[in-house]
């Protein structure tokens, strides 16, 4: 889900007609007679509302010959209904100051509108009409096929995207997760209107969908609107389909690609359990320990200190079915032989060496902070609520998740690393620039992976207005203008210090100076080096960045309010 929010199962019983009103911020849930679950969270901070339909339909629910049909439907859903022509749906929303869009993932499709709360009913009507009555005009379909096929061609030109798809295909040889969400040219070209309607009939059942509304609304009104909009749709039962299970991986798997590229790319993957598994929170913390901020292990050891990669990331992708823990990076191809074992060594260290208490605490705070940042806007709150319902079955799972995070110990982290970072379950992928002479075959790749299995005797790491509040203004004795807006909706603090400056004040000779100065603002002070500054900020799960624009230059920071 979000960077850290793929959660274990806590199934909630959503009883028809049962409501939970407890003021702003509380979640009210109701299941309509046809099985559609509606969840509403009040947030009166601003007169805005986010409306989202979540459908348990993704590449996971497609048969081989249907590859890409979920994504194709998402592209077609706003192309007209009997009451609105192509483009009119978007015009209605945009003329009310809102936005409308959709996206497809491995597990679900999400259709969403963000709009001023006084137009909330209009937004819900438009979104519901699109899902219930999409025309799938054959001429529009042919045009959209061209768009998607061009997307595929562009995707193949992106080295990191191409390697990522190849890595997933190597990990998932049987399960649908191994197929690209966008589909394949041969399947997209064959789709007919009847194919799309049949797929929707199979998957777009009320019991397989969730309506999430977050913002400046009253739950009672939303339930009433939903009831009216869905009154003619009967209960169509549960969705039934069989998903092929991926056999256990036994032995190292390798992917080697060549492509026109300016740099090499690498990917490392290990299978992990589904989001409902109790180890999922610990895997999220592991990914934070490895690559969340400049003081994380891979950033500090591999990128900053040794300069082996240009960029590095780690992420635990727990899904509705077992997923993967993936590490990805870009680098100079001549450094691949040194970088790959170095990266794997950092992962394997976690299997036999406890993380320090300070490091664990910092990672926990990073996970908590990422959750808080995601909730700063109603769109983010709606997405977290939709994930909780659609994946976990519990609209209030956020609290359970954070309780699990806070309970994690050093021993838990080492146990989970040992369980999933096993060399026999490793998949390694590399993409080399075809213009360069650098070569690497499967045998050498296997040798490099084996090299990383050697244990190192290393000790633990060292510790290190209308609805909302008004803006208050105060001028300090030195002339500094202080602006404060109090909000207790999310426990975060955002700080921005701005000064006159920027591109407007540059001459031909000093062009670009403002941007350079802004970047240097966080690269060290008289009392702290750049790495010390980064570590102190990240220990508090915060962020600190310089900025430069046309009229201003300065610093912006974000922290949890308890710090």
Supply database-style keywords:
Cytochrome Bc1 Complex, Chain A, domain 1, 563 residues, 37% helix, 3 domains, 16 strands, six-stranded mixed sheet, five-stranded mixed sheet, alpha+beta
Give a short summary of the structure.
The chain is of the alpha+beta class and 563 residues long. It is 37% helix and 20% strand. The protein has a 6-stranded mixed sheet, sandwiched between helices.
Mean of residue pLDDT values: 88
Number of alpha- plus pi-helical segments: 18
CATH topology of the largest domain: Cytochrome Bc1 Complex, Chain A, domain 1
Percent helix, as a range, is 25-40%
Identify low-pLDDT runs: 1-23, 458-468
Number of strands: 16
Question: What is the 3D form?
Answer: globular
What's the CATH H-level superfamily name of the largest domain?
Answer: Metalloenzyme, LuxS/M16 peptidase-like
How many strands, what sense, and barrel or not for the largest sheet? 6 strands, mixed
- How many distinct folded domains? 3
CATH top-level class of the largest domain = Alpha Beta
Tell me which CATH architecture of the largest domain applies here.
Answer: 2-Layer Sandwich
Strand content: 15-25%
Structural class by sheet pairing and helices? alpha+beta
Amino-to-carboxy terminus distance: 26 Å
Radius of gyration: 25 Å
């Amino acid at each position: 889900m979000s960077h850290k929010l793929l959660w274990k199962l806590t199934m909630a019983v959503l009883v028809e007609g049962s409501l939970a009103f407890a003021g702003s911020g509380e979640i009210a849930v109701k299941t309509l007679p046809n099985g559609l679950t509606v969840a509403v969270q009040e947030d009166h901070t601003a007169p805005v509302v986010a409306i989202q339909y979540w459908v348990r339909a993704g590449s996971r629910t497609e048969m081989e010959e249907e590859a890409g049909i979920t994504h194709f439907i998402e592209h077609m859903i706003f192309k007209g209904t009997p009451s609105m022509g192509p483009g009119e749906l978007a015009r209605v929303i945009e003329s009310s100051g809102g936005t409308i869009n959709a996206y497809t993932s491995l597990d679900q499709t999400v259709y969403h509108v963000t709009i001023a709360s006084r137009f909330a009913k209009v937004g819900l009507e438009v979104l519901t009409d699109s899902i219930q009555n999409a025309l799938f005009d054959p001429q529009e379909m042919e045009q959209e096929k061209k768009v998607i096929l061009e997307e595929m061609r562009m995707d193949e030109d992106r080295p990191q995207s191409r390697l990522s798809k190849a890595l997933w295909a190597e990990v998932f040889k049987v399960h649908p997760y191994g197929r690209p969400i966008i589909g394949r040219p041969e399947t997209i070209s064959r789709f007919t209107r009847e194919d799309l309607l049949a797929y929707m009939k199979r998957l777009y059942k009320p019991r397989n969908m969730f309506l999430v509304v977050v913002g400046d609304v009253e739950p009672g009104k939303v339930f009433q609107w939903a009831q009216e909009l869905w009154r003619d749709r009967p209960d169509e039962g549960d969705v039934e389909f069989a998903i092929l299970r991926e056999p256990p991986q036994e032995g190292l798997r390798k992917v080697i690609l060549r492509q026109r590229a300016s740099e090499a790319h690498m990917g490392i993957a290990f299978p992990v359990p589904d989001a409902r598994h109790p180890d999922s929170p610990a895997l999220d913390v592991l990914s934070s320990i490895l690559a969340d901020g400049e003081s994380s292990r891979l950033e500090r050891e591999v990128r900053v200190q040794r300069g082996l990669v240009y960029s590095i990331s780690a992420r635990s992708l727990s899904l509705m079915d077992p997923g993967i823990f993936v590490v990805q990076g870009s680098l100079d191809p001549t450094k691949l032989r040194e970088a790959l074992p170095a990266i794997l060594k950092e992962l394997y260290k976690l299997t036999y060496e406890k993380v320090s208490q300070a490091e664990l605490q910092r990672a926990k705070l990073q996970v908590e902070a990422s959750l808080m940042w995601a909730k700063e806007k109603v769109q983010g709150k709606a997405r977290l609520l939709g994930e909780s319902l659609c994946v976990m079955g519990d609209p209030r799972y956020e609290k359970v998740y954070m309780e699990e995070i806070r309970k994690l110990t050093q021993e838990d982290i080492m146990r989970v690393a040992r369980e999933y970072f096993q060399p026999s379950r490793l998949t390694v992928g590399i993409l080399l620039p075809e213009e360069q002479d650098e070569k690497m075959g499967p045998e050498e790749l296997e040798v490099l992976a084996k090299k990383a299995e050697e244990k190192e005797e290393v000790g633990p790491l060292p510790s290190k207005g209308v609805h909302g509040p008004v803006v208050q203004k105060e001028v300090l004795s030195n002339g500094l203008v202080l602006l404060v807006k109090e909000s207790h909706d999310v426990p975060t603090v955002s700080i921005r210090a701005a000064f006159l400056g920027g591109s407007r004040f540059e001459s031909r000779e000093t062009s670009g100076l403002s941007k350079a100065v802004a970047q240097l603002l966080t690269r060290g002070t008289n009392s702290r080096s750049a790495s010390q500054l980064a570590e102190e900020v990240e220990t508090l799960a915060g962020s600190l960045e310089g900025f430069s624009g046309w009229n201003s230059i300065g610093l912006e920071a974000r922290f949890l309010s308890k710090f």
